[in-house]
Amino acid sequence: MPLLLQAYTAEGILRGSVLPEGRLGDLLETLDSITVDAAVVTPLDDRPDVREPRAEIVIDDLLVVVAPPSTPAPVHATWHELVLAVGPYLVEGLLPTLPGFD
User: Fold this and answer.
1) Average predicted confidence (pLDDT) for the chain
2) What's the predicted TM-score (pTM) here?
3) Model confidence over 2-28: pLDDT tens digits?
4) Cα–Cα dist 1/8, whole Å
């Protein structure tokens, strides 16, 4: 079953699916690029979406990747507020860490 992917790049927001060969986080840490099926990039300006049936994306081009909803969070996590400026984006959220690792 493919994993839905939503990622933010310098050009815009990338959506599509990735065939799982393991956890998405592990793929992003170990591969140089990933293949995204049914790739759609919504540019940051007012240009129309760019659609490709299959796109090879260099991992270093992904500024922020949204974890799939099925990603488990640590049960006894300590949650930390996070505000981060990445390229043209301002990311705000909560970052979980296991107790003792903060």
Assistant:
1) 89
2) 0.82
3) 888 999 999 999 999 998 777 788 888
4) 23
CA–CA gap between residue 92 and residue 81 (Å, rounded): 8
The total number of residues written for the chain in this structure:
102
Q: What is the pLDDT of residue 27?
A: 85
3-state DSSP call for residue 25? helix
What domains are there in the chain, each with its CATH number?
3-66 (2.30.30.100)
Written as one letter, the residue type at 1 is: M
Give CA–CA dist 44/34, Å, rounded.
Answer: 22
Residue 37 CA to residue 18 CA, distance in Å, equals: 6
**Residue 39 and residue 54 in contact, taking contact as beta carbons nearer than 8 Å:** yes
